[in-house]
Design brief:
Length: about 325
C-alpha cells in the first residue's frame, strides 16, 4: 500500500505496533517490522542502559525501520533522547507531554516524530510543534489515556478534519474490520497495542497474557483520572482504586495507593491481584497468543478482503 504514512516510515503495511511498557521490547518491535508493519520499542519502563541494549538488538534483528516510544514524563528523558540520536533510530513516537520540547531537536537529527493525542485541540498543538504525524487515541485504548473519554469513532474524523498532517488511529483496533473502519474515517494507519500484548514476542508475563484471553466485555475501566488516567483490567487493585475514588479520595491518597512499580508488578511479574494490568477494551475480542508476524498478516489480509469486497447497497 502507498499512502503518506507508508512513505513517511518506508513501510509496506500501515500497521503500527504500540510502544507499550513491559510488553514492547526488541523481539516484538523487530517481528512487527519484519512483517512489513512498524514495530516500536516502549522506552517508558527501560533504564537508559536497557534502552541502548534494546535498540542495538533490534537493529541486529531487522533491517527494516522501527521506532521508539518515549513518554515525555519519563524521569531520565535526556539520556533516552541522546541514545536515540546516537544510535540513529529513524522514528520516535512521543506521548504524555508537550511535543514542543523535543520535536525540533529530534528533527534536526533527521528523525521522524509522531505525537500521541486524545483530542483535536492537542492534535493542533502537535501539528504546530512540527511533528510529522499524529496518533489519535480513543477512549477504548489501554494504558494511559485522555480525560475527555472521546471514543475512537468520534475522535478520528474530528482530528482528521482539524489537521493537515497524517493521522494514525488507535484505541479499540485489533482486526482488519476495525482497521478498515478507521481508514474510512480518514486515518492513514492504525496503531495497535492490546492485540500485540498477546503475541509470542511480547515480554509481558504469561499470566497477564492469559488474563487478557479470559477478559469479557466490560472487564476494563478507565481509572485514576485525578492522577494520570489509565485503562486497567479489573482486579483487586483496580477495585481498591474504584472504592477510594467513590469515597472521594484526594490525589495524595490515590498516589499513595498506587505506590511505585505497580505496572511492572502486574504486567511483567504477573501479579494479577495487586498489579496494574493496562489493556484496552478490545481485550474481550482477543482469543489466542500467536507470533506477531501472524497477527500482522491476519489483520492485513482481513483488511484487504474487506477493502476489495465493500458492502453492497
Ligand atoms: P512508577 O513510578 O510506578 O515506577 C517506575 C518504573 O519504571 C519502575 O518499575 C522502574 O523499574 C521503571 N524505570 C525505568 N527507568 C526508570 C528510571 N530512569 N527511573 C525510575 N524508574 C525507572 O512508574 P510506572 O511504572 O507507572 O511508569 C513508568 C514509565 O512508563 C513512566 O515514564 C510512564 O510515563 C510510562 N508509561 C507509559 C505507558 C505507555 O503506554 N507508553 C503506560 C504507562 C506508563 P524498576 O522497578 O526495575 O526500578
Amino acid at each position: 500500500m502507498q499512502n503518506r504514512i507508508c512513505r513517511l516510515f518506508n513501510i509496506e503495511k500501515p500497521i503500527i505496533q504500540a510502544g507499550m511498557i513491559w510488553a514492547s521490547g526488541w523481539e516484538l518491535a523487530a517481528a512487527v517490522s519484519n512483517a512489513g508493519g512498524l514495530g516500536i520499542i516502549g522506552a517508558g519502563s527501560m533504564y537508559p542502559g536497557v534502552l541502548e541494549e534494546q535498540i542495538k538488538k533490534c537493529q541486529q534483528a531487522t533491517s527494516k525501520p522501527f521506532a521508539v516510544n518515549l513518554p515525555l514524563l519519563y524521569p531520565d528523558i535526556d539520556q533516552h533522547i541522546q541514545t536515540i540520536i546516537k544510535l540513529k533510530v529513524p522514528i520516535v513516537f512521543t506521548s504524555a507531554g508537550n511535543p514542543k520540547t523535543y520535536t525540533h531537536l529530534l528533527k534536526e537529527h533527521g528523525i521522524r516524530v509522531v505525537h500521541v493525542v486524545s483530542s483535536s485541540k492537542f492534535a493542533l498543538k502537535a501539528q504546530e510543534a512540527g511533528v510529522d504525524a499524529i496518533v489519535a487515541e480513543g477512549f477504548e485504548a489501554g494504558g494511559h489515556n485522555g480525560r475527555e473519554e472521546t471514543t475512537t469513532l468520534c475522535l478520528i474524523p474530528a482530528v482528521c478534519d482539524a489537521v493537515a498532517i497524517p493521522v494514525i488511529a488507535a484505541g479499540g483496533i485489533a482486526s482488519g474490520k476495525s482497521m478498515y473502519a478507521v481508514m474510512v474515517l480518514g486515518a492513514e494507519a492504525v496503531q495497535i497495542g492490546s492485540r500485540f500484548v498477546c503475541s509470542e514476542e511480547s515480554s509481558s508475563h504469561i499470566a497477564f497474557k492469559k488474563a487478557i484471553l479470559n477478559a469479557q466485555e466490560g472487564d476494563t475501566k478507565l481509572s485514576l483520572k485525578e492522577l494520570t488516567p489509565v485503562r486497567l483490567l479489573k482486579n483487586i487493585f483496580a477495585t481498591k482504586v474504584q472504592e477510594a475514588e467513590l469515597a472521594g479520595a484526594s490525589k495524595e491518597t490515590l498516589t499513595n495507593l498506587l505506590g511505585r512499580g505497580r505496572a511492572k508488578k502486574g504486567m511483567f511479574e504477573g501479579d494479577l491481584e495487586e498489579g496494574e494490568l493496562e489493556i484496552g477494551q478490545v481485550s474481550s475480542m482477543i482469543k489466542d497468543i500467536k507470533p506477531a508476524k501472524e497477527i500482522v498478516a491476519e489483520i492485513w489480509n482481513d483488511f484487504l478482503n474487506i477493502a476489495n469486497n465493500p458492502i453492497k447497497i
